[in-house]
């Protein structure tokens, strides 16, 4: 379960403080598929980054699976993130000097998983890229890179999967492959899925849609 309480985020911009999130509060039950939507600049990526512990809020709390993430020090936060959170970025963020298989093995290696290699190959197979194990990101299409990124995000079987516009850079065919994969792996691993999207075909797959506007929640609907 994710519980976000009175989250505020302001950042200095042009000599003054600009409020990006203003008192965001919501709870995501275990295994829910939540879509966060809203206009560009409404604070979606900022919110997802705070959920992932990639940034700390100006005030407020984020609780995940019983842990107050916003109170953890750097080291514990990194450890918590590795064990509990998978993250998919819009622009893939693969390591360019590592092969597809090595990229997927990174989170497993960080956990000193002895079976990192075998598991990375299994995941490559699960995302339909068994024959691309030795390819570098530059040798893969955008859709293929994002499939590798999805496999990497699920590598540690994290209970929470976050994705920021995972289909934002892709054409319709690749987008639908990524959507299918996210949903299939999410089902298989029983994880909670929170994703930001502009893509109606992706938000349609959610159990619930939260709408942000100017750093406030202005809509919250089950579907
Ligand atoms: N590091 C930053 N410094 C200053 N302003 C920022 C920073 N990051 C984001 N913003 C501003 O915060 C607002 C929300 O950004 P963001 O969370 O990226 O929105 P979204 O993902 O919904 O498009 C935007 O107005 C953006 O310009
Ligand atoms: Mg964004």
Describe the overall structure.
The structure is a single chain. The chain has one domain: 3-Layer(aba) Sandwich (Rossmann fold), CATH 3.40.50. The protein contains 7 helices and 10 strands. It has a 6-stranded mixed beta sheet with strand order 6-7-8-3-9-10, sandwiched between helices. The protein has a 4-stranded antiparallel beta sheet with strand order 2-1-4-5, covered by helices on one side. The chain is of the alpha/beta class. The model has no long low-confidence stretch (mean pLDDT about 95). Helix content is about 35%, strand content about 30%. Strand 1 and strand 2 form a beta hairpin. Helix 3 runs parallel beside helix 5 and helix 5 packs parallel to helix 6. Bound molecules: adenosine-5'-diphosphate and magnesium ion. The site of adenosine-5'-diphosphate has 11 residues, from strand 1 and helix 1.
Short description:
The protein is 34% helix and 29% strand. The protein is of the alpha/beta class and 223 residues long. The strands form two sheets. It has a six-stranded mixed sheet with strand order 6-7-8-3-9-10, sandwiched between helices.
Give me the secondary-structure topology.
Layout (H helix, E strand, L loop, with lengths): L1 E12 L2 E13 L4 E5 L6 H8 L7 E6 L2 E2 L5 H11 E4 L11 H11 L5 H11 L15 H13 L5 E5 L7 H18 L2 E5 L3 H4 L4 E6 L2 E7 L1
Parallel strand pairs: 3-8, 3-9, 6-7, 7-8
Antiparallel strand pairs: 1-2, 1-4, 4-5, 9-10
Bound molecules: adenosine-5'-diphosphate and magnesium ion.
């Amino acid at each position: 379960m994710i519980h976000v309480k009175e989250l505020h985020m302001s950042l200095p911009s042009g000599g003054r403080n600009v409020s990006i999130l203003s008192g965001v509060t919501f709870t995501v039950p275990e295994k829910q598929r939540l879509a966060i939507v809203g206009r560009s600049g409404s604070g979606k990526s900022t919110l997802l980054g705070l959920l992932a512990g990639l940034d700390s809020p100006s005030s407020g709390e984020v609780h995940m699976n019983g842990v107050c993430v916003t109170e953890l020090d750097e080291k514990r936060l990194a450890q918590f993130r590795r064990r509990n959170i998978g993250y998919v970025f819009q622009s893939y963020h693969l390591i360019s000097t590592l092969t597809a298989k090595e990229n997927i093995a990174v989170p497993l290696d960080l956990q000193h998983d002895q079976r990192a290699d075998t598991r990375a190959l299994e995941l490559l197979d699960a995302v339909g890229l068994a024959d691309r194990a030795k390819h570098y990101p530059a040798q893969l299409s955008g859709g293929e890179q994002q499939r590798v990124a999805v496999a990497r995000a699920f590598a540690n079987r994290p209970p929470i999967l976050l994705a920021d516009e995972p289909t934002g850079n892709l054409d319709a065919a690749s987008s639908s492959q990524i959507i299918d994969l996210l949903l299939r792996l999410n089902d298989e691993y029983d994880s909670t899925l929170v994703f930001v999207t502009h893509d109606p075909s992706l938000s349609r797959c959610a159990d619930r849609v939260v709408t942000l506007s100017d750093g406030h929640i202005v809509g919250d609907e089950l579907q």
